[in-house]
Amino acid sequence: MASIKVKYRPSTTDSKEGGIYYQVIHGRIVRQINTDCRLFRHEWDSSASAVKILPSATENRKSYLQSVVERIKWDKKRLEAVIALLDGKGKPYTADEVVERFKDNAGTLSLFSFMQGIIVQLKRLNRIRTSETYAATLASYMKFREGKDILLCEMDGDSMMLYEAWLKGNGACPNTISFYMRILRAVYNRAVEKELTEQCYPFKHVYTGVDKTVKRAVPLKTIKRIKELDLTLKPHLDYARDMFLFSFYTRGMSFIDMAYLKRSDLKNGILTYRRRKTGQLLTIKWEKCMENIIAKYEGCSTTQYLLPIITNSNADERTQYQNALYRMNVALKFVARLVNLPIPLTMYCARHSWASIAKSKNIPLSVISEGMGHDSEETTRIYLASLDTSVIDKANSLILKDL
Questions:
Q1: How many angstroms separate the CA atoms of 19 and 331, rounded?
Q2: What interhelical angle do 235-249 and 347-360 show, nearest 10?
Q3: Is the CB of residue 22 less than 8 Å from the CB of residue 73?
Q4: 3-class DSSP assignment, residue 177
Q5: Three-class DSSP category at 21
Q6: Which of 73, 221, 352, 381 can pair with 217 through a Cys bridge, CB separation 3.0 to 4.6 Å?
Q7: 3-state DSSP call for residue 68?
Q8: How far apart, in whole angstroms, are the C-alpha atoms of residue 38 and residue 78?
Q9: Cβ atoms within 10 Å, residue 382
Q10: What are phi and psi of 182, to 5 degrees?
Q11: What residues have CB less than 8 Å from 19, skipping those under 6 apart?
Q12: Which pLDDT score, from 0 to 100, does residue 230 have?
């Protein structure tokens, strides 16, 4: 097994700083790795091979020296991780290989750097939504770590359980915890595939399942009441209501698919689009209720898009879509109050509602699945599992009546 020593090379001039370097020793061969850490001779303890922070030093200097201490500690951990990986393969290696791997993997042996690289790659592949979920997960984990990076090889069951406990302590629900854990697991598994760390199964004892969510579907009679609201004097609520109804009319079309619908997607009474989430091609018969909404907002946008969501061709489209969704969901909460709806109304409720109403009308699962653009009926079955509990509630009432 290779060993590591931290060394100090003093300057030939006493008034100038010397440099820190590392020695990698393996098979009686010694190799050096230079650093940009600079110290004066009196700031190095040669007997302990450590930085000395003198009480007489200025606060700025103390801060700098502490950063050098942290840098050395981090570099040693990275070198130890490289050596552990090479030892784990059970094959002969040289000191030169240790040095080469240390330099090549400067930004990949730590979780923060490795994950940031994945996020950049996802953006290049135009997988913007996925990159955003990875960025949100990284931001959460960085907050938990108080900004201190962690080596991939340090990710173990204990560290993940501590993160899970931190998330719970900050009010995260089980599905949110699972969301972050599954993304971190995907990142970790990718690092294992790239042979940047050994598989230690750190997510074995944390929650990575999917809990049933609170019912987000609304019945058809509520959809009718929302449709019949007079919102003439409240144009922002009127617009949000119309976009909600358009989603419902189009079999629960997701908002991102609505935002990117092009005028050219509507031909000969058929609306054709490809789901951005799955890539599946869907066709919808164009109905009068859909046409009424499009006609109502005719001229509100000069872009190529069918709906007035992305309206400025000179501004970032993704930002326009995200801002519109935020404003719409805020407005829909006010709409919900106007119809005395006890649950928060969001754009996503339109999708849940269409599925739930279709189920209540005994429409076959296969038809609902096809209509929603799901990859399989199993996905639809999971999706519908917690939407409509009315049948169970009625059964319970019948039982309780006999008490």
A1: 61
A2: 40
A3: no
A4: helix
A5: strand
A6: 352
A7: helix
A8: 20
A9: 13
A10: -70, -35
A11: 8, 9, 34, 35, 36, 37, 38, 39
A12: 95
